[in-house]
TrEMBL record:
Name the record gives this protein: Type III polyketide synthase
Domain (Chalcone/stilbene synthase C-terminal) ranges: 226-349
InterPro entries reported for this sequence: Chalcone/stilbene_synt_C, Chalcone/stilbene_synt_N, Polyketide_synthase_type-III, Thiolase-like
Active site (record annotation): C141 (acyl-thioester intermediate)
Domain Chalcone/stilbene synthase N-terminal: 60-202
Top-level taxon in the UniProt lineage: Bacteria
Molecular function terms, GO-annotated: acyltransferase activity, transferring groups other than amino-acyl groups
Amino acid sequence: MSVKIKTVTKQLPKYSRNTDEIIPFLDTWLVGQDERFIRKVKKIFEGAAVDKRYSIMDPIEVFTKTSFEERNDIYVREVIDLGEKVLEKALKKANWNPEDLDYIITVSCTGIMIPSLDAYLINTLKLRQDIVRLPVTEMGCAAGISGIIYAKNFLQANPGKRAAVIAVESPTATFQLDDFSMANIVSAAIFGDGAACVLLSSHEDDKGPEIVSEEMYHFYDNIHMMGFKLTNSGLQMVLDIEVPETIASHFPDIIHPFLEKNNLRIEDINHLIFHPGGKKIVQTVESLFSSLGKNIDDTKEVLRLYGNMSSATVLYVLERIMDNQPKKGEKGLMLSFGPGFSAQRVLLQF
């Protein structure tokens, strides 16, 4: 049973700032810190390869001390709004009605809400009362592809069905005002907020790139590499400096066996749809593929235009690829990394 990606859409929050507009906020935030440290922080922001980032909060709110409850209330309110808008946009683009959906997966790791986003979308968009729902909450940047994998497995087992994967993230809601660690600073420099929706189908009349294969890859003994620590002030970023090197050391095992199972080599892949985790990760991945004549230009451009929006970001890359209308028969490889530590892979044929 063929499972296809019908369409991908994005939705951005109402607030945005260029990186040079963020620098004055750093001066206020870092008052009293060592001058060399302040220069280092500014250099990290200026060298992050992120020209602009969007946020569910005005920067003044981001750099204002608030409680975890107050931040999370903003997260819940804005995530619901973004989720509704991006799903409605995707349904319109696909020419589907809300009641056409059989399965809804919502993805987010940057706040806490129960009921989860999918419950709100069922009510506001009047999705079917028998729709199957799955919230994915703790897989970080990898979860956008995780959602696609779960949707694919459901649709493959249920011919003639349709699914939506909605990823909504607000890393700025996790920013810790009293945390001057490199993990908090680097994450603030590279992350932004955003939402994306992927519609998938096992209906024979629906067209789009086919999901040929999918797999997860789990790194042993690297649980400490990435995640959040729940503190009294909110979700505190955990981000190990060795993430790029760890990814690089596992890359041959992540890529080549997966392709070999599908009788392919990396040379056979036309489109690399990689999650832009940050400048160093992008440079690491780029160095591994440049010698093969491959590029990750769309990944770099998404990072530049929006920053790393956690699980939603790779879906922005996918949207760019699909909007360029790849030739029939071309192949794409989706890849993202997340806490655990893990890598998620999806092979597409256009």
